[in-house]
Amino acid sequence: MSRNLPFSRQQLELFFPAPDPPAPSDAPLPVLPAGEDADLTGLSRRLVAALGLHDLAKRVVVLWNPRLRTTAGRAYRNRAVVELNPQLVRISPEEIDRTLRHELAHLVAAHRAGRRRIPAHGREWRIACSELGIPGESRCHDLPFQRRPQRRRFAYVCPVCQHRLLRVRRIKRAAACYHCCRAHNQGRFDARFQLIEARLKESEVASRQS
Ligand SMILES: [Zn+2]
Ligand SMILES: [Zn+2]
After folding, report:
1. Ligand 1 centroid to 121 CA: how many Å?
2. What CA–CA distance (Å, rounded) separates 108 from 77?
3. CB atoms within 10 A of CB 33
4. Taken in order 164, 165, 169, 175, is the CA torsion positive or negative?
5. Cα 99 to ligand 1 centroid, rounded to whole Å
6. Cβ neighbour number for residue 44 with a 10 Å cutoff
7. Are residues 99 and 84 in contact, defined by beta-carbon separation less than 8 angstroms?
8. Ligand number nearest to the C-alpha of 73
């Protein structure tokens, strides 16, 4: 009844289940900043003062806003406030710096325009970006890692150990349970452990890929 397909180890490994997420106690969440950042406020004031905009330089304040989700940063021209997404800390210092300058460029462009209305990412803003050291800055504010994850739409189950596997795409080739192949067949494919497509449970429909 067992039909052994010529399955390489590599192909089997395509279907590794995702590792279990670490227990909460194993992974203390890094403390993300919140509220005003004195260092970044100081840096911003120096950058803006270097452009000769001393009125604006005195007023600029930089805040970390934990409520920002996919937005990396925001600028409020009337209050001269730049808000940054604390998740930037997890990306890199360069990304914090770039986002800060992008938002400062909005304040600089708006300050220079006065009552004149200007497009958010128009010529005035691009000039300010160049002056603030980020020429060629794009208008993208979205954090790369916070795109909506893909839904897993296919469920598979091992007929022997009942291990369930969720996949974004349908598995096209024969695939066997990794755990059982490891435990009973030296890691080689064994049709006894071939995964069977199963109905998604309601709790799995909403689950996302990590
Ligand atoms: Zn912008
Ligand atoms: Zn199994």
Report:
1. 6
2. 9
3. 15
4. negative
5. 9
6. 24
7. yes
8. 1
* φ and ψ at residue 155, rounded to 5 degrees: -115, 140
pLDDT at 108 exceeding the cut of 90: yes
Q: How far is the CA of 162 from the centre of ligand 1 (A)?
A: 50
Amino acid at 200: L
Ligand nearest to the CA of 125: 1
CA of 166 to the centre of ligand 1 (A): 38
pLDDT in tens, 21-47: 444 444 455 578 999 999 999 999 999
Question: Closest-lying ligand to the alpha carbon of 134?
Answer: 1
- Residue 97: is its pLDDT beyond 50? yes
Q: Which amino acid, one-letter code, is at 154?
A: F
State how beta strands 81-84 and 73-76 pair: antiparallel
What stretches of the chain show up as alpha helix (H) in DSSP?
9-13, 38-50, 54-59, 88-91, 93-113, 123-131, 178-184, 202-205
**What are the structure tokens assigned to 97, written together?**
């710096």
Task: Record the tokens describing residue 138, joined without a space.
Answer: 């794009």
Ligand sitting nearest the alpha carbon of 194: 2
Q: What six digits make up the tokens of 47?
A: 């950058």
Q: Residue 184: nearest ligand to its CA?
A: 2
pLDDT for residue 8 is more than 60? no
Burial class (CB in 10 A: 0-12, 13-18, 19+), 157: middle
